Amino acid sequence: MLLEELDIFSVPIKKFQFQKEEITPLLNEYEEKRDAIIKRSSFYVQNDGEQDLADYATDFQNPIKLHEYEKLIMLVKNYFENKNYNFQLISYWTAVYNSKGYHKEHCHDSGSQYMPPANNFASALYLTSIGGTEFQSPHVMSAEYEYSIKSKVGLLVIFPSSLIHSAPSSNSPHERVCIAGNMGIYLK
């Protein structure tokens, strides 16, 4: 009997850890713009009946530009382009969670079976070390159904936009802050 095992549909997840001197300018810019992000969120985010608006804020509908974030993403772009990939940041927004704040299971995939999404990858850049992101396996035969990544200041996680993930509540008395994004990463 011959056995051949193929690992064809592995899920690539990349983790980049920015150093303190790299992430500090973004932390400062976030602090300067925090109140504007919260205010913008209250205009766009509607109460879903499950979560108190005081526990979750996001400028997803109309993001506030974070120049220091874009500078960090240029470093990531250089990494991918040096590996023979085209890289495009498509969109990003800030999410602020208080003690009971959470984000339900979702994915960032906007494509169809006939047309792949322009944003084939999604990302999370943690500005605090509170909480984390839980990923669900896209494969029913996976050895593990869930995989968690704990938040760490300056940690950027890039994963396929079709990967289902969530941000459970942390029950921490401190804010959990994350910059989420969509990007296109394709071989040249």
Report what the structure shows:
- This protein has 188 residues and is an alpha+beta fold.
- It has 2 helices and 10 strands, in the order βαβαββββββββ.
- The strands form 2 sheets. Strands 1-8-5-10-3-2 form a 6-stranded antiparallel sheet. Strands 4-9-6-7 form a 4-stranded antiparallel sheet, with no helix packed on it.
Helix content: 10-25%
* Mean pLDDT across every amino acid position: 88
What is the tally of beta strands?
10
Question: Which class best fits the helix and strand makeup?
Answer: alpha+beta
In whole angstroms, the N-to-C terminal distance is 41 Å
Count of alpha and pi helical runs: 2
Strand content: 25-35%
Tell me about the biggest sheet?
6 strands, antiparallel
Rg, nearest Å: 17 Å
Succession of helices and strands:
EHEHEEEEEEEE
Shape verdict: globular
**Adjacency order of strands in the biggest sheet:** 1-8-5-10-3-2
Low-confidence stretches: none
Highlighted features:
alpha+beta; 188 residues; 10 strands; single chain; four-stranded antiparallel sheet
Can you give me a brief rundown of this structure?
The protein has helices at residues 20-44, 67-82; strands spanning 14-17, 56-58, 85-97, 103-106, 121-126, 132-136, 146-150, 155-160, 165-167, 176-187.
